[in-house]
Amino acid sequence: MPEWYGKFIVACFIAVVFCSCASVKPYQRAYLNDPEMQPDTGPEAQFETYYESIREGSSTAGGGKATDGCGCK
Domain-by-domain residue ranges, the chain? Predict the structure, then answer.
């Protein structure tokens, strides 16, 4: 194993640790709580969940009624 390999692994680990979390200032929380930032639950998202359940043949993590994989509800 090359000498630089261990240093490279340590450098990657440190980069991931420092980039994984970010502090949020109080005035920035208003932007994070904006409805635009929430996961979509509109008709497009419901159709996508329905389509994925048909394609996968099982219920998705989104929950809801499971289909038999044929497109029937």
Answer: 3-56
